[in-house]
Design goal:
Layout lengths: L7 H7 L7 E6 L1 E5 L2 E5 L2 E7 L4 E4 L2 E5 L2 E9 L5 E9 L7 E8 L4
Antiparallel strand pairs: 1-7, 2-3, 4-5, 4-8, 6-7, 8-9
């Protein structure tokens, strides 16, 4: 999500800097329990990289009522092609779920 899509009030309440060159990754972990979807706390870590640099993503946990999610803001250059690697561990007794994706980034 490009942070320029956030209202100034929402960005301020979460301490997020808005801008056309700033992006926000939002990760949430849910478990299906019967008809309900339950939010889970997790250990989330990751990196974003271009052809030269790898930068850690700094995920911050947000808990609101029955929701738990993890936000990681970062900056990018227009038309950057970035690779994201994210590790999600909701159960310390099980291996982390690893995900990787690539995205070409554009300024809003």
């Amino acid at each position: 999500l490009n942070t320029s899509f956030l209202t100034p009030q929402v960005a301020r309440s979460y301490g997020i800097v808005r801008g056309k060159n700033r992006f926000l990754i939002n990760v949430s972990v849910r478990r299906q329990s019967g008809p309900d979807n339950i939010a889970l706390r997790a250990n989330i870590s990751g990196t974003q990289s271009d052809l030269i640099h790898r930068t850690p993503l700094d995920f911050r946990e947000v808990i609101e009522q029955d929701a738990v999610y993890y936000l990681a803001p970062f900056e990018f250059e227009n038309e950057d092609f970035l690779t994201f690697k994210i590790s999600v561990r909701s159960d310390p007794e099980k291996p982390a779920y690893e995900l990787k994706f690539q995205k070409k980034m554009y300024h809003d």
